[in-house]
Amino acid sequence: MTPFLQFTLSLVIIITAAKLAGYFSYRIGQPSVLGELLVGILLGPSVLNIFHGSYFTDTHLEETITHLAEIGVLLLMFLAGLDLHLDDLARSSKVSAGAGILGVIFPLALGTGVGLLFNFDLHSSFFIGLVLAATSVSISAQTLMELKVLRSRVGVSMLGAAVFDDILVVLGLSVFVALIQSGGDGGLIVVLMIILRMVLYLGAAVLVGMWLLPKLSYWIENLPISQGLIAFTFVVALLYAWTAESLGSMAAITGAFLAGLLFGRSRVKEKIESGISTIAYSVFVPIFFVNVGLSADARQLTIQTLWLFLAMLLVAIIGKVLGSGIGAQLGGFTRREALQIGVGMMSRGEVGLIVASVGVLEGLIEQEAFAVIVGVVIITTLLTPPTLRLLFSQEGKLRRGEF
Q: What pLDDT, on a 0 to 100 scale, did the predictor assign at position 2?
């Protein structure tokens, strides 16, 4: 079978399995994303290992699927930004800052402690803390969209906190790796240069988005081009994602989220949302959720690494729930709202995997530790959707007086 036919068959399997699993998950009262994540684990090396069988021999197949999955998460974050307003984020800035900053400090400190406790050197221990400090609200954003509470003050604050978290973790990772590579020379200059790039990127991206994008959107909408507006929006979302990482030293998902926020001010927002949603949820987003499971291999976890896995999982959960929760409470949120934000920040998703991959490339962690981190990423990602649904459903019952 040719590589193209293998690729075609893999998409048939992934998308069909994702939609069926999402449907059954919804039928039992859980977010559809939970079913899509679980079916990825079932298809992946942890159980069936279907894409390493005799039918699939193309060595580039996994990489191709991963690239499609990365487009999926960019579109998902673009849609999350599109559904919000800059005014909403501005009003929640105090809570977002507190939840985002403490949501990094707590797991960073606890993760470093776990690394030292298990006899990792200081550099590796600090890096483990950085991995556990990362967060990915793409899973939470999808769950909140399904629950129709994304634009609640908890949803808006959670997404704002994720921006603060992303900036701090990416800044910390960039500075840490740069210092390791330079042997500690020029540390202050490295930090200042990274901060400057972030500030310049955000300023330029917002200016272009507020002044140029609306005009281009209106102009392109009236051109005799088939689906020209949707194509333009898709390209801009990818371009913002690329520039965020390449020019702004930030994660690509932050650029996609920012593009969605800026397009949200456009009078053609509904048309954009309809077109991009169709592209995203029919193909790319299901591939992303399934690919999270495909990337996990539970067989690499051994008895020797079990205690490390349990310790890191505990820190991953407690660090975010306590850190982001306390930050939200300091900003004036109730305990229940603070707990909702803490749980929503718990998933590490693709951001945790990206940070961990950097550690392997730089020789900061071994493959065995990487397998443990992947396991932690998967479990926190699986726990987040049902826990969020439970917290919000209980809140709804309380409001109706059913408790």
A: 93
